[in-house]
Structure formats: C-alpha cells, structure tokens
Amino acid sequence: MQDTILAIAGRPGLFRLLTRGTGRIIVESLDETKHRFPASPRDRITSLNDVSMYTDADDVPLMDIFQNIANTLDKKSSPLNHKTASPDELRDFMAMALPDYDRDRVHLSDMKKLLQWYNILIAAGYTTFADKE
Q1: Are residues 34 and 92 located together in one domain of the fold?
Q2: Contact 2, 63 (CB under 8 A)
Q3: pTM as predicted
Q4: Would you say 4 and 16 are in contact if contact means Cβ atoms under 8 Å apart?
Q5: Which end of the chain has the smaller Cβ count within 10 Å, N or C?
Q6: What's the structural domain count of the chain?
C-alpha cells in the first residue's frame, strides 16, 4: 500500500498507482469517482511512503503517523473536517497523532493535509498503514 498511494501537486486528494508506462504512469483517484488518468513527471508526484513529519527528535514516516491515528480512532475516520476544524482542534488532533511533533516546523496546513489524507484513506478502505515489526 505504501508505495502505490500518491499525492500529485495541484490535484486534490490521493491517487493509487495502477501501472507504469514509458515516461508516464496511470493513476486512479481514491475518491468515489475512481477517475483514471495518465500522470507525467512534470506533475510532481510524491509517494506517501516518502513523506515524513518533523518531531523534536527524528522525522517520523507518514505511514507510522497514520497507523497511530488509526489505532487511536479504532480504524475509523476522524470526526474533524479539514476545512472547518479550528486551529486548536487541529493542534489537538496533531498531538494525538504525533505527540512530539515539532511545533515550530509543522504548520496548520500540514495538519489539515494529514487529516484530509487520513480520512481519504479510511474512506477508501485502508486501515493498516505501517508494517508490524
């Protein structure tokens, strides 16, 4: 799951990698439309496996943070909406997801994106994010 879920700059939501071609990939949106389209390197594609968040110590992979949230919320979506949540609600959510996050380098926009992506993944049926070690 970690290598196939993608974020594409300039496009809302998350995407699942379907296949790779010469100079492009075919992706499918994780929302209910399941829209498929080709994406090229100029689209600035990022695998969620490559994303991490700042903490007071080392950076923590995004998948580990998603797993913390899923464990805390019993693998259900968050009751918060990323568009309407107050800054205090977002900070509380972030403290629950990653208690030692760097309060200077993790911005409200990062917290909104984390909340949005988590809810998208749960709605798409993903409930296990990090391998159990």
Answers
A1: no
A2: yes
A3: 0.90
A4: yes
A5: C
A6: 2
CA distance linking residue 64 with residue 67, whole number of Å: 5
Domain that holds residue 104: 51-123
Q: What is the pLDDT of residues 30-52, one digit of tens each?
A: 998 999 999 988 899 999 999 99
pLDDT digits (tens, 9 = 90+) for 80-96: 999 999 999 999 999 99
CA dihedral 69, 63, 26, 77 (to 10 degrees): 0
What pLDDT, on a 0 to 100 scale, did the predictor assign at position 131?
A: 72
Residues with Cβ within 8 Å of 127's Cβ and at least 6 positions away in sequence, in order, are 70, 75
The helix (H) or strand (E) run that includes residue 64 is helix 62-72
* Residue 39 belongs to some domain of the structure: yes
